[in-house]
Amino acid sequence: MDKPHGRQLAAARTLAGLSQSALAEAARISVPTLKRMEASDGPAVGMPNNVSAVVAALQEAGVIFIDENGQGPGVRLRKAGPLTFLQFIRQAEKTNDPVGDFIGDARMDRTMPDAADWPELEAYLEGRGAIQAAIDAGEATWDRFIATRDAKSK
Asked: Which Pfam families does this entry report, sorted A to Z (predicted)?
């Protein structure tokens, strides 16, 4: 893909239902940096690694970037499949409780697995040396994920 346009990034973020702060957090950049990228006329202005991080976060959120084809660049969403654990983590509101703390930490953890079940996630946390409180928060987050996934599939 060619370098995305600023308006293409803004359209992709809106289409994915992400706020600027949520996308900036997922891409590990500042909100002002994202705002500058989105405000760009033509190719997004910014450090190449930051632009790539934003594109990767949007692709992870289900966005497909469409290259210039004579009609201009664009974006669309992948067909929705079942909600995955990592999608839930990226979309969940960060609350002021242990689950919110876990969600914030999980967003920053680039090795967090897209676990298929709680035992897989629990084994990952234990392997990372997580304390029991973090494991408990992980289990509560997993329960919230399952409830959300099941509600969306109905």
From this structure: HTH_31
Q: Which of 77, 94, 122 is the last residue of a domain?
A: 77
CATH number of the domain at 32, please.
1.10.260.40
Residue 63: phi and psi, rounded to 5, are -85, 140
Q: How far out from the chain centre does Cα 53 lie?
A: 11
Residues 6+ apart with CB under 8 A from 27: 34, 50, 53, 54, 56, 57
| Average pLDDT taken over every residue of the chain | 91
pLDDT for residue 1 is more than 80: no
Q: How far apart are CA 138 and CA 16, in angstroms?
A: 25
Summarize pLDDT for 82-133 with one digit per residue, the tens. 888 988 888 888 789 999 999 989 988 878 998 999 999 999 999 999 999 9
Into how many domains does the chain fold?
2
57/51 Cα distance (integer angstroms): 10
Residues 73 and 93 reside in one and the same domain = no
